Structures are given as C-alpha cells and as structure tokens.
C-alpha cells in the first residue's frame, strides 16, 4: 500500500492546503482534526476556540480525475476564554478534541471540548426561505392591514446556502483537571470525557449530571505518580472502554462490572527493554493517544518513539510495534531540554485497518502498512503544492554519510511538528495538520 | 556530525556548518517567543547538569498559573529517578560497573543482570554526558572509591551531612531554597538538621543523612504537587521516613 513498488501501492498526491501562508498567529494553531462518519465533512479545532468544517464537493465520479475538494462549509466560535474566579485561573479556549455523531437527520452534530467544558453543536443547512407573506414586506417591514386587498399563500423559494451552527448542549463543571479525550459510545446516546485523573460518563440529553466511572486520584496527592492521557469507547461494545496512562499502560474496563471502573478488566503493558533504559524511559513511554481499530479487535497506542498495535486478547505485549523516529533515541537529552520530549502525537487507522499513520517532526508524517510491513515518510510542505503532484518519500539519515536527498537528524526542525492527522473512513484521503496549516492528500487516481 | 572524507567538498562544508546551526538552534530555543513549549524562560541558574535542568523545569512548571499535571508528574518522576541514581547504595560493591559511574543506586531500575546494568549505566552516562558532563555533585562520591562510600566510620546524622559537601543533597537544597523563597522555609531547617528519625535505616554511614536530605527534597516535591492541586492547605509536610 504505502511504499514503493508492488501492485497495490498507493502514491500519495498533494491535494489542498488550508490556512495562512505565514504562521505567526497563535490562535490559528490547529489543535484537532476529525473526519465525520461518511468522510464528507472534515472538522478542525484551533487554539483560538474556533471550529472550521470543510465539506467535500460531490464530483461527477465517472469523470473525476481526483476526488472532490474540501471547501469551507462552516466556521464558528465554539469556546471562548473563561475565567475561573474561584481559582483565579484563565481557562483556555483551545479545542482539545472534536468528535462527530453519526448522522440521524438532515443536521450534523459534533462534540467539541476545551479543557473544562464539552459542547454539542448542531450544524444545519438552510437553503430556502418562505416568501410572499401577506402582512410583511419582503424586507420584513409590516404592511398596513388595510392595504391588503388579496391573499396569497407564502411559498418556499431557494436562497443561497446558509450553514448555521448552534450549541444544543453545554456539559460543564464536571472536570477539575484538563480534559484530554471525549469518545462517543456505540449506543449513540452516551459519551465519555476524560481528564488527567477522572473519566465521566454523560448522556447526550442530560447536561446537569454525569457519572464518574474512573477515578485515579490518590487520597494523598503526594502519592500521585500517574495520570490518564487518553480514553476511548470500544467501537462495538457499548460497555467497554480503554484508557491510557503516563506510565505506558492501557486499561480496558467493563462498565457492567461495577459502577466505578477503578479495577480494570485487562491491563496492557509491555515490559521495559532493559537495554533501552534511561532517565527518560518513563517520559517516552507515556502514551499520547489510543485508538481502536474499526473492527474493534485491535487498538493502537502512540508513545514518544513508536506506534504499537495491541490485540485485545493479549495483554502482555503488543502484536506489532513500529518505530516512528528511532533516530531520536540518542537525542532524548536535548529533546528533554527543549521540552519536545513531552509532545503528544496522535495516530490513526485507515478505513480497512490495514495502514496506520502518525506524525513526526520537520513536518514529516509516517505510514505503516501492517500487511506488507513497509513504511513511508512523507512531508507536508507548501513546496509540493501542485495538485496531483506525487509526494516524494523522505528519509532521515541517522548517522554516517548522508545520502543525497536525505536529511540528517540535526537538520530536523523540531518546531515543525505534526501532532494531528486523520484518515477518511472510506477512501484514501488524509488530513494532516502542521502548526497552523491543514494539508489534504489523496491517493493518485488514474 | 560525521565528516565524510568523500570527494564532495561542498557537502563536507555543509556538514561542518550544521553543528553550528544546531548549537545555535538549541541556544535560541530558550528565547524564541513564538515557541509554544513550556520551558521558555531563559535559565535563571545556568547549569548543564540533568538534575539542575530538571529542578529548573519543575520550578518553571510550578510557576504556571495552572500547570499541566501530566508534565508535572513526569518531571517529578524523572527527578526522583535522577535523585535515586545519585544516591549511593550500601550494597553496591559487587557491581562490576565502570568506576567512573556516579553512585548509582542498585534500585529496581537497574537491578537486573550485570550486563544489563552496565548497558543501562552506559546509556545513562551517555544521556548525562550530553549535557557537558555531570554536575559536581556526584564526583566527590566517585573519587572516594567504590562504591562511593567516603569513609567507613562516619556517624549518621550530622556527620553524614558534613560529607555531602558540594554533593547532591546540599546543592539541591540550596537551589531549592533559592527557588522556593516564598514558601515557608522553616520546614527545611528543622527537618534537615534533625537527628535521624524513625523510619530511616540505621547502618549505612551517610545513608540516613543523605536519605534525609534527598527524602526531604522528595517530600518537598510531593508537597508542592499537593499544594499545586489545592488539596492541602499550606502546612508542615510529614516528616521524613514516610
């Protein structure tokens, strides 16, 4: 699939880039990217609390040279900065996560969250309006009833498409710590939200109450050594969810077992490799993202240097491990110094669960084909911005003589990090977020 | 950077330039106002040791109005590891490790096979040496021979503390004192100079004293963590030997 040669290999092409050319505005920093269930809509959240939704053009499939382009569909301010008067702290408006609900009617719904508050947004279209009122003029002014001599029935007439976003629910005041994850249950009625120490279960209709299902806050905070880093519901089992920790463990919990799922049903942890031990072992083992496969049979975790695939039936080690940027292992000290070692990279599956993708530095992102065991490194850069230009694979030279077209580790730009990526649920279209630009790549269509 | 002895002179020049670029990049890292990284302030105490760096980061993190709990926990755990590795361990003599090693404690981290231990320590050394050599702290212990035991008959308590000298305990303590000036410092004084209290292992010469010093620091860290998350009003921390 991804890689050179072979009959089924994908060639990734540049499709579009969204965002400003000069990246100076802090509020434009993209903080989350998510396709909806059909892939027709692509949502991004940014540091300024805004959500931008792109919609794929419905092209004539028979004649298309490429799949439809994504154009801005709706932009709205989801969260505003708030001030917590009790603690005298400002609450950032940065959108940490967006999750789409499956579409049930003409409108679309998504959940967006900042550090403290989750909101349910309804995005609906309006493309017609009633015209021909008897008592009102077209501009809205009221007519004098005495001037009305005939009656007519108002009719709907087409108008320019207007997309409206309105907040339907606000789920607030349930998290003391910073929310890192939200995940919608397969029952489509409930969802979970996770912060550093607790996970809460909500009903989408009920905002004044949530159930705490995981609490790892120690009685004595001095004993705190581990935090929750990510959580997700199983895609098919509505009673099952997992959460990952800063110590590199994943716990699978069954909500049927007890109300408070402090005791896990399964604990996934790989024993540390003694030859790789260092002062930074714990930091690099901290899991930054966990994602179930679409099938529900596997889950993927991302730690600082690798991506691991776990079979839910095997707790003692992952079934597959992919090194994202192993050349950084000898640079951990510098990366600790400049705090890059704390960066949280996300990861994602393709629609068929055969390829996984994650970001790296220097605006590189990596894909691993689970079947062919081949991997590829690509770059999100405006230099390749001609549509249908095939992306050239990149290579980092860890040591020794650098070959032509290779980049040496010391030349990598650690300011340019790709933390958020998303894969269309059905097609080979990917969305890759650099600091404040969104790149869309597609596979080459002949 | 590897300099190739190849034919392409131009590339050699390029490669020669790169280290300078990298060094520069690292320096300006601290000063770049656009960088979203947490540790942005120029180091208040310029230092190259991993321990000092970690303490600095911790201090900086605690100074944030609402620190990132994950960041803080990882920092504290790493700091504990560093401190633990600098703590000499009485039962170390049998370790065939290179003599230049800092007084690495045979704690659970490094307590596997001898080969693994050497390998781990090699990697630790590599990590530490990246920051232009160790701080002075561990050296006095190292110079005084394996396993870093200064002199056999030193009594616990005050005597051990004398031996610390520029070593980790006092160094850390002084720095912490400076860093946390606004915190009630009476807990430093009475705790540090108290005779070995219950809970501390008798026996190892500078064990209790050193442990006290380091445990205090750990207690401080824990205490600060607790204050940070607002669950504990400012009060005297529990004594050592928790």
From TrEMBL, chain A:
MF terms (GO), sorted A to Z: protein phosphatase regulator activity
Q: For this UniProt entry, what's an example GO CC term?
A: protein phosphatase type 2A complex
Give the record's keywords alphabetically. Repeat, WD repeat
Question: Which residue positions does the secretion signal occupy?
Answer: none
Annotated coiled-coil positions are none
Q: Which domain of life is it from?
A: Eukaryota
Q: Which family does it belong to?
A: Belongs to the phosphatase 2A regulatory subunit B family.
Protein's UniProt name? Serine/threonine-protein phosphatase 2A 55 kDa regulatory subunit B
Q: State the taxonomy lineage.
A: Eukaryota, Metazoa, Chordata, Craniata, Vertebrata
UniProtKB/TrEMBL annotation, chain B:
* GO-annotated cellular components: nucleus
Question: Which InterPro entries does the record cross-reference, listed alphabetically?
Answer: E2F-SERTA_domain_protein, SERTA_dom
Ranges for domain SERTA come to 43-90
Known Pfam families for this protein?
SERTA
Q: Where is this region: Disordered?
A: 1-24, 137-160
Q: Which organism is it from?
A: Acinonyx jubatus
What this protein is called in its record is: SERTA domain-containing protein 1
Domain of life of the native organism: Eukaryota
């Amino acid at each position: 699939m991804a890689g050179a040669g072979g009959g089924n290999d994908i060639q990734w092409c540049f499709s579009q880039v969204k965002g400003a050319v000069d990246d100076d505005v802090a509020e434009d920093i993209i903080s989350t990217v998510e396709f909806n269930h059909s892939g027709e809509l692509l949502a991004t959240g940014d540091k300024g609390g805004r959500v931008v939704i792109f919609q794929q053009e419905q092209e004539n499939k028979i004649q298309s040279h490429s799949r439809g382009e994504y154009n801005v569909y709706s932009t709205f301010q989801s969260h505003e900065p708030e001030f917590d008067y009790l603690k005298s702290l400002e609450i950032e408006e940065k959108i940490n996560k967006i999750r789409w609900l499956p579409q049930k009617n003409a409108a679309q719904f998504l959940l967006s969250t900042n550090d403290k508050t989750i909101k349910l947004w309804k995005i609906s279209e309006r493309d017609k309006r009633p015209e021909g009122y008897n008592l009102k003029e077209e501009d809205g002014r009221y007519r004098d009833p005495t001037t009305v001599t005939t009656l007519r029935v108002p009719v709907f007439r087409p108008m320019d498409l207007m997309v409206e976003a309105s907040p339907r629910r606000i789920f607030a005041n349930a998290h003391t710590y910073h929310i890192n994850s939200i995940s919608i249950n397969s029952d489509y009625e409930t969802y979970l939200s996770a912060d550093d120490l607790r996970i809460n279960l909500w009903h989408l209709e009920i905002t004044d109450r949530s159930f705490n299902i995981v609490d790892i806050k120690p009685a004595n905070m001095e004993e705190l050594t581990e935090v929750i880093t990510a959580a997700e519901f199983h895609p098919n089992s509505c009673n099952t969810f997992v959460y990952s920790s800063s110590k590199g463990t994943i716990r699978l919990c069954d909500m049927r077992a007890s109300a408070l799922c402090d005791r896990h049903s399964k604990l996934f942890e790989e024993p540390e490799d003694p030859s790789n031990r260092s002062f930074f072992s714990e930091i690099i083992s901290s899991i930054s993202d966990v994602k179930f496969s679409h099938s529900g049979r596997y889950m993927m975790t991302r730690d600082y240097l690798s991506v691991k695939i776990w079979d839910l039936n095997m707790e003692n080690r992952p079934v597959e491990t992919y090194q994202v940027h192993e050349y950084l292992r000898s640079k951990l000290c510098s990366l600790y110094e400049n705090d890059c070692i704390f960066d949280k990279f996300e990861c994602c599956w393709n629609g068929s669960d055969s390829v996984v993708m994650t970001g790296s530095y220097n605006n590189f992102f990596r894909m691993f084909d689970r079947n062919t065991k081949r991997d590829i490194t690509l770059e999100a850069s405006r230099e390749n911005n001609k549509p249908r230009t095939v992306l050239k694979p990149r290579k980092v030279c860890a040591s020794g003589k650098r070959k032509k077209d290779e980049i040496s580790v010391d030349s990598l730009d650690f300011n340019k990090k790709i933390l958020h990526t998303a894969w269309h649920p059905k097609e080979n279209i990917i969305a890759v977020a650099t600091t404040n630009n969104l790149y869309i790549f597609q596979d080459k269509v002949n | 950077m590897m300099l190739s002895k190849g034919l392409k002179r131009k590339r050699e020049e390029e490669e020669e330039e790169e280290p300078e670029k990298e060094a520069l990049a690292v320096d300006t890292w601290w000063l770049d106002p656009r960088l979203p990284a947490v540790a942005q302030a120029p180091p208040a105490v310029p230092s190259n040791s991993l321990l000092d760096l970690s303490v600095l980061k911790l201090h900086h993190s605690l100074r944030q109005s609402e620190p990132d709990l994950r960041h803080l926990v990882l920092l504290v755990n790493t700091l504990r590891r560093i401190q633990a590795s600098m703590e000499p361990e009485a039962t170390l003599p049998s370790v065939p490790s290179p003599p230049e090693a800092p007084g690495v404690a045979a704690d659970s981290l490094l307590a596997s096979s001898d080969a693994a231990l050497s390998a781990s320590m090699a990697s630790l050394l590599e990590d530490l040496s990246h920051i232009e050599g160790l701080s002075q702290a561990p050296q006095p212990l190292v110079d005084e021979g394996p396993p870093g035991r200064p002199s056999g008959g030193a009594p616990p308590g005050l005597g051990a503390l004398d031996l610390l000298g520029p070593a980790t305990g006092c160094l850390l303590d002084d720095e912490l004192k400076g860093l946390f000036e606004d915190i009630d410092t009476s807990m430093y004084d009475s705790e540090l100079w108290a005779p070995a209290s219950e809970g501390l292992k008798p026996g190892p010469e500078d064990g209790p004293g050193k442990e006290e010093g380091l445990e205090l620091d750990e207690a401080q860290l824990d205490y600060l963590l607790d204050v940070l998350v607002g669950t504990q009003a400012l009060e005297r921390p529990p004594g050592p030997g928790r």
